[in-house]
Amino acid sequence: MAQSSVEVLLIILLLVLFLIVFALLFYLLRKTSDLEKITKQRRVVPLAKKGGPLLGLLGREIWDTLSDQSASSERNTEIRKRYAYILQRHIEEIVEQGIYDARKGIQEEPSPEASIGGTKGEILSWIPAKYVKRLYNLGRNLSSGEEREDVSETLKSEVLEILSVIGLDTEKPDMGQTVLENIS
Fold first, then answer.
1. Are 124 and 52 in contact (CB under 8 A)?
2. What is the pLDDT of residues 141-175, one digit of tens each?
3. How far apart are CA 109 and CA 138, in angstroms?
4. Quick check: 63 and 54 in contact, CB under 8 A?
5. Domain edges within the chain
6. How far apart are CA 49 and CA 143, in angstroms?
7. Which residues pair with 179 in a beta bridge?
8. Cα–Cα separations (whole angstroms), residue 55 to 9, 20, 39, 49
9. What contacts 24+ positions apart, CB below 8 Å, involve 104-111?
């Protein structure tokens, strides 16, 4: 009889221990799901576009404002001064992408929009797709090394054409040469 009571006591003890472990697991599972709900509620949605405005204008708005040369205001002059560096960096980025892609043997034309870092933060820059395609292809041609002089001259004239569209050709006529020096 003593032996059977010990067996019953052991079985009861195992059942109690099993219930305690089960209760602890249930408690941990519930707390974990509560924490996940709180985390999901606090999650911040990132902005779709990187880069900020330049005097209140973003990307294509900057290009459209500068290409409308009939509106020559003090604000447009200030935008031109600030945008020259951003545009130069954007052009360099496109040409460098062409050089890099040609070396890797891929062809993936970059987007007309790019977030370019400046002295006052990132600016969202935009260049029309036809110029992006030409600059990208010139970069691909620069990587081959053949006829580098001709490609360099074509790049300079392409940059000058872009600058003339937005009225920067008189202010930065040597930007094409600067782009070539920076990517070499």
1. yes
2. 887 766 777 888 888 888 888 888 887 777 777 77
3. 12
4. no
5. 1-44, 60-183
6. 31
7. none
8. 81, 65, 36, 17
9. 107/140, 109/133, 109/136, 110/136
Q: C-alpha 14: how far from its chain's center?
A: 60
Inter-residue contact 59 to 126 (CB < 8 Å): yes
For 177, other C-beta atoms within 10 Å of its C-beta total 13
Cβ-contact 110, 97 below 8 angstroms: yes
- The answer to whether residues 168 and 87 touch, using CB atoms and an 8 Å cutoff, is yes
* Residue 55 and residue 155 in contact, taking contact as beta carbons nearer than 8 Å: no
Please report the pLDDT score of residue 153 as a whole number: 83
Helix (H, G, I), strand (E, B) or coil at 48: coil
| Placement of tokens 């600058």 in the chain | 163
The answer to whether residues 113 and 126 touch, using CB atoms and an 8 Å cutoff, is yes
pLDDT digits (tens, 9 = 90+) for 9-42: 999 999 999 999 999 999 999 999 999 988 888 7
Return the DSSP state at 112.
Answer: S
Cβ–Cβ under 8 Å, residues 90 and 161: no
Q: Check pLDDT > 50 for residue 47.
A: no
- For the segment 50-57, the average pLDDT, to the nearest whole number, is 60
C-alpha 53/C-alpha 59 separation (Å) is 8
Share of the chain above pLDDT 70, in %: 86
